[in-house]
Every structure is written in C-alpha cells, then in structure tokens.
Design goal:
By secondary structure, this protein is α+β, with helices and mostly antiparallel strands. It contains six helices and 18 strands. Strands 3-1-2-4-9-8-7-6-5 form a nine-stranded mixed sheet, with helices on one face. Strands 10, 11, 12, 13, 14, 15, 16, 17 and 18 form a nine-stranded mixed sheet that branches. Strand 11 and strand 12 form a beta hairpin. Helix 3 crosses helix 6 and helix 4 packs across helix 5. The protein is globular.
C-alpha cells in the first residue's frame, strides 16, 4: 500500500491505495492538493482502499438514504460502529465503511473498474464532507467565483443555473474568476468565513488550492424577471442549509452544522435572486451584495 497526503481547505487527510495503482491517473484533480508529508496538525481522516474481493460484500444495517446523483446510485446505512455506503456506478458496486465521526474510513473499490478513479474521488468526498463538519466547516453544493479578493457563492437546486450565473459574473463583472463549479468548502476561521477550492468541481475542471474571504452567498431560483433580496437571521440560515452536505439523521453532525451556519449567517451577506440567465441578473446580484457589504 502507498500512502498519499492531501490538504484541502487547510484540513489534512491521507489516502492509502495498492502500490500498483497510479494515483496521478486515478485522481488528477487532487494534484494541486498533494503534500509530500503530512502537514503539522490533526489528521482529519485516514482512508484505506486495499485490494479485496467485493463481489460477495453486503451491507447489514439500517438504510437511511437511497439517492441517485452525480456520483451514481448511493445508499447510506447506519452500522453498529458507524456508517456504510454502497455506490453503484454503471453496473459495478463499490463500498465504504466509516466510524461515527468519519475519522477512520475503509473503501472497497473494484480496481478493475474503468471508473475506479471517479469512485475513489466520490468516496473521499463523502468522508471529507462529513468529517469537516466537526471542524467548523461545510462542504457546499454551489458554484463559487472570486472577485476583488473575495469569494461569492451561488446555491440552488440542480438545474437552477448556478454554473450559468457564475459564467455571467465572469463575463460581465471585471476581474471575476471561477474558484469552484460544484463543491467548494466554507470554513469559519475565527470570526471570518473563508471559501476554498477543492478537488471536486463537477463538470468544469477547476481545482484551485486557494482561498478567499466570503463576500456573499446567494440562493438562486429561475424567474421571468430579476429580483434580488437580502436575507438575515433565520432566513439566511434557511437559504444556506439546503446546499450543505450532512447526514441529517446524525444528531452530532447536524448540530455541528447548525453551529457553523449560525456563525456564518451572522458574518456573511446572504441573499436570494429570482433571475433570468442574463447580464442584468449578474449585475443586479453583484451590486446587491457589494452594497450590503458597506
């Protein structure tokens, strides 16, 4: 087994895979986050993915979720010692077992599967998204851009137009660049919210090892006309929560997320944007957020 060390959003974790596997080929999006040695500080989690026969593997526990998303068909189980995940991609099943706080994780990957790299990335993403919750951070389903030294995040249901709105900002707002197109990390550092690039960026390859203070967060919905509204208090909390990755049935993880969102809503400009996919929507959103910063 060969061990690799990574740092994402300032959090360190390690991944062990069979020696014969080429990590650069399996996980090209992780290259900017690779560390030669484990950085100083606490290891967020360790994931081991040995060679094993998964053909007869079964999950024995309470099934909490059964969803199909960009990762494939995912089933989440509550197990005696923590959690289990089965991931069906194409016609091949893969598995993950984790302790209750996702600090120790075992992945059972079919290494002969042509999608083994995508599977490994998805399983690491699952472990990462849950383990950061206990560290004042959250993995958010959003598109994020950087502009003027700050990050702006666009949230919404799948198909709402998060990537489209980010592209409109980059087209019409000077100095705007893509930070991440699908899964940035938000972390509270003292009393400041920071947005980080990650190895997971959906269909747009954008894997940046960089961070910016959060300038604003906006929940989008499609509409025949453009309308921007600022949110505060519980409305801000409600606007952010749906995009957060959390096992909602886990009280400890859920409470950690609530604590982070409460702090985040206090220090961040949060708004909603009913919009068309046009220049006016981008400019209205930009001016609504930046004016609220003053």
């Amino acid at each position: 087994m060969t061990r690799y060390h990574y740092s994402v959003a300032g959090f360190s974790f390690s991944v062990c895979i069979p020696e014969k596997e080429d990590m650069n080929q399996l996980l090209p999006s992780f290259r900017p986050f690779l560390c030669g040695d484990m950085p100083e500080g606490e290891n967020l989690f360790h994931l081991s993915a040995p060679v094993c026969d998964v053909s007869s593997f079964t999950m024995e526990g309470e099934m909490l979720e059964d969803v199909t998303n960009d990762m494939g068909r995912l089933r989440l189980y509550r197990m005696p010692m923590g959690y289990g995940v089965s991931l069906l991609l194409g016609n091949v099943m893969h598995y993950l077992l984790a302790d209750k706080d996702f600090s120790s994780v075992r992945a059972f990957v079919r290494w002969d599967d042509i999608h083994a790299g995508n599977v490994l990335s998805s399983l690491i993403r699952i472990a990462y998204s849950q383990s950061v919750l206990r560290k004042g951070a959250v993995s958010l389903h959003a598109a994020a851009v950087s502009c003027g030294g700050k990050a702006y995040l666009f949230m919404g249901k799948s198909g709402t137009g998060k990537s489209t709105h980010a592209a409109l900002w980059m087209k019409y707002i000077p100095g705007c660049e893509l930070l991440n197109d699908d899964n940035p990390t938000i972390r509270m550092v003292g009393n400041m919210a920071m947005a980080y690039g990650t190895p997971w960026s959906g269909k747009t390859p954008c894997y940046k090892q960089c961070a910016f203070p959060v300038g604003g967060m906006v929940r989008l919905r499609q509409a025949p006309e453009n309308r921007f509204r600022l949110c505060s208090g519980s409305d801000a909390f409600v606007a952010i929560y749906p995009g957060c990755s959390v096992i909602s049935q886990d009280v400890a993880l859920r409470n950690s997320l609530y604590d982070t969102l409460a702090r985040l809503a206090e220090v961040t400009v949060v708004g909603t944007l009913a919009c068309r996919p046009d220049e006016e929507a981008a400019r209205l959103c930009f001016h609504g957020i930046t004016e609220a910063q003053n």
